[in-house]
Amino acid sequence: MGPKTSRPLPDPSAALTLLRSGPPRASQELAGPGLIGDVTASDEGLAAAGREAEPGDAARRAVEAVWRIESGRLIAGLARVTGDVGLAEEVAQDALVAALEQWPRTGTPPNPAGWLMTTAKNRGIDMYRRRAVHQEKLTMLSRETPDGHDPIAALVDDDSLDDHIGDDLLRLIFTAAHPALTMDSRVALTLRCLGGLSTDEIARAFLVPESTAAQRIVRAKRTLAGHAVGFELPGPEQMAGRLASVLQVVFLIFNEGYSATAGEDWMRPALVEDALRLGRLLAVLVPDEPEVHGLLALMEIQASRSIARVGPDGGPVLLPDQDRRRWDRLLIRGGLESLRRADALPAPIGPYTLQAAIAACHARAATVQDTDWARIAALYEVLGGLWFSPVVQLNRAVAVGKSAGPKAGLAIVDGLLATGELPHYPQLPAVRGDLLAGLGRSQEARAEFERAAALTRNAQERAIFLTRAAEL
Between these two residues, 197 and 305, which has the higher pLDDT value? Predict the structure, then answer.
């Protein structure tokens, strides 16, 4: 079911409040290389801006914080009036470079967000005037308007940008996660335009070269232009599919932060924060969609365990071994409230809401022994009927193994093996090893954990599997 587009959107200030949630990551370098489009800041220009900012650390931190909070709003407003996400991101980047150059010398302006918006607007006006392709349009407009009236400046006046912020942010989310783009490009463009991340930050988050991250954003913008994707909300007949694409992007970002697929880090908390911020924004902008609240509930409940997932030595701590007193009760309460909202809406329950209900079973259990594994197994069975996935079946095997015994769980895993499902997924042999260990079949279990260690690309996860193998 799509949102009722005729329903007035919530107060824009509420969306901006959500954009401000979560502290900016001041330890990360904000300035990255020039991206895309016809004219963007060069690597040398950004490097020079960074060097000039060194004496003004406070100003540079202000630039970073404001950009992280306001970049989505800024790009969304500019994209509405230009009709081009690539051009909007380009002039927004120009405003960022100008701030990096000027604020350390002149000080942080009283209204930093307004300064960025005005500067970007002026850069956009200048760019329009420079481009020959628009000259004829400017000439025509000048004949039809009174002397002294600037049609381009009027088109992008600040009040107009602010009036449409709720609609603009929603349009930007749907444009950045357009199904015409590859998943890699959707994620990169969403983090770039809505998360305020630099190319370098995106590359480091997903362990790819900076050039690869930049290419993904370049391809995304070219694809949007090539498909003539408008900066608009999808119609009712497209809304369900398009919203599913948006939620998939946000959840992928969260998952990569919560359980890194590769590299040395067990978690990447910065990506978790970005996904939570996007999820909260969506919950304000699309309040009538239960799956939006279901996804937010799932992410908040899972994120509540983040601190407990890391031990004093920095090593990973699995769910059964976590000190539940360290779980973030505020996030749990928020997640349970989001789940309540999803349940209360008059629409069928979807996969994110079901996964949130499973996460809530863990959140409500004071100890691992109190976990209602039978309910979790039943919820996974419902989820599997609604959204078939071998990963869902593997998770159901874990719950069945806990509620009905390891032999019952092993039968489900062996069924996946028989059909050739998940041949390169390290969790499958890990789950099978755990179930075999529960049956006292230690030698087989050891072989499964060693196989899981060979399959994973995450160093911390590999260490867990090898430790389990050595203990058998």
Answer: 305
Full DSSP string of 303-324: HTTTGGGB-TTS-B--GGG--G
Contact in structure between 465 and 430 (CB atoms under 8 Å) = yes
Strand partners, 457: 262
Which helix or strand (DSSP H or E) is residue 20 part of?
A: none
CA distance 365 to 376: 12
Count of CB atoms within 10 A of residue 280's CB?
A: 23
Tell me how crowded residue 418 is: count the other CB atoms within 10 A of its CB.
8
User: pLDDT tens across 184-210, in order?
Assistant: 999 889 888 887 778 888 887 777 899
Cα-Cα-Cα-Cα torsion 386, 387, 388, 393, nearest 10 degrees, comes to: -90
Q: ∠ CA(213), CA(215), CA(217), 5° rounding?
A: 75
The residues pairing with 262 across neighbouring beta strands, listed in sequence order, are 457
Q: Write out pLDDT tens, residues 113-155.
A: 888 888 888 887 777 666 645 555 555 545 544 444 444 444 4
C-alpha to C-alpha distance for 32 and 47, rounded to whole angstroms: 8
Parallel, antiparallel or unpaired: strands 262-263 and 457-458: parallel
Output DSSP code: residue 206.
T
Sign of CA pseudo-dihedral 218, 100, 71, 90 = negative
- In the predicted model, is pLDDT for residue 159 greater than 80? no
Closest CA to 327 of 275, 366, 278: 366
Q: Using CA atoms, how far apart are residues 353 and 377, in angstroms rounded to an integer?
A: 15
Q: State the sign of the Cα–Cα–Cα–Cα dihedral 163, 166, 170, 176.
A: positive
Structure tokens at 297: 């509930």
Which tokens belong to 323? 């000190």
Residues 6+ apart with CB under 8 A from 121: 78, 153, 156, 157, 158, 161
3-state SS, residue 262: strand
